[in-house]
Amino acid sequence: MTAVAREALNAAEAAVPGTMREIAFVQALKDWLGGFPTRATQRLEAVLMQHPRDALAMKLVQAIHFLMGRPKEMRKSVENILPHWDGHVAQGYVLGCHAFTLEETGEYARAELQGRKGVELAPQDAWGLHAVAHVYDMTARSADGLQWLRGREASWMHCNNFRYHVWWHQALMHLDLQQFDEALALYDRDVRADKTDDYRDISNAASLLSRLELEGVNVGDRWDELADLSEKRATDGSLAFADLHYLLSLCGGERFESASRLIARMAAAKSEICESQRIIAHPGLRMAVGVQAFARGEYANAWFNLRDARADLQQIGGSHVQRDVFQRICIEAAIRGGYLDAARGMIEERSTVRGKTWDGYAERRLALLARAQAQAV
Ligand SMILES: [Fe+2]
pLDDT digit string (tens) for 273-330? Predict the structure, then answer.
């Protein structure tokens, strides 16, 4: 969409200057295209100070902070405007946004309440519904999550490709309950209903296949179409988050030469050029090297690289649930590399972020570690 966005920017700049509010949007677009998303949010925040009911500015700020891995800022922004939506016909949608930021900042109980309230007011809002689904994932309540989503399909069936993402959440819940056939059926029927090359769709798919494989499930030839699409997108160089999911697909499809080319491109990212390149340079590159080493079975090498990237993983953006695939690969590399204490430490740390709960994944890994350590005695 970059070409379309540039065209729009050129047209806007050539036009008669509009109001201060309109100019702020044009400047924000220019900042975004120049690689300065933080500055773009500042421009839009200025709009929100004057016009707290500007829904487009609000959603753009939410989206940019989300992409940049800044949940606290995302929450602060929506909380600033929240009181201005009291009684408004679209209040439910804003509550859904707030619920998601509460969830991403670890306030799970409040997030669930706020999300449910939002959905009550705006039953068509998939974002609020999705915020509650996140709470169930992050608090190890997969069965409750499935119950929450079941029967509410009309809330997300009307959406654009976001609907694939909600199906993805449902598949993750089945995965956690070891209902692998259900997860694979959802993958084929809904998550990859259309073989699109939008990075968000590829990331849902690659992330689900990776998690299934970590659970020992044979995913057949499903990697192939993702690898084909990822080969074409590997030169984008727009977002570390996207690159890392392309890489998962390339490694999953055993396209190691293409994977190496993608990593070489990431290694050439110049951190001083712009914000997104800085994140590709670190932690993106280190994570990528670790993911490829893991796929090649070089577990110690994978662990050393992933361990370093993991400390700054938040910066690649996305949600806790989305980034969890990289946490899992890191933990798995430590287990397979024989760094059992480190693996246990990471599992415990992961649980702390998840409201001190243990999901099926954590329970299975802890049991595996206990068996390995008993055998070692
Ligand atoms: Fe999500």
Answer: 789 899 999 999 999 999 999 999 999 999 999 999 999 999 999 999 999 999 999 9
Q: Phi first, then psi: what are they for 194, rounded to 5°?
A: -120, 135
CB 17 within 8 A of CB 23: yes
Cα–Cα dist 188/171, whole Å: 11
The predicted-structure confidence for 319-344, as pLDDT tens digits, reads as follows: 999 999 999 999 999 999 999 999 99
Ligand 1 centroid–CA 128 distance in Å is 11
CA of 166 to the centre of ligand 1 (A): 7
Position with higher pLDDT, 238 vs 243: 243
Looking at CATH, the fold of the domain delimited by 214-377 is given as 1.25.40
* Interval between CA 155 and ligand 1 midpoint (Å): 15
Ligand 1 center from residue 204 Cα (angstroms):
9
Best CA proximity match to 289, nearest among 272, 270, 313, 267 = 267
CA of 90 to the centre of ligand 1 (A): 21
Taking the domains of the chain in order of start, what are their residue ranges?
214-377
Give per-residue burial for 102-113: e unless 16+ CB within 10 Å, then b. bbbeebbeebbb
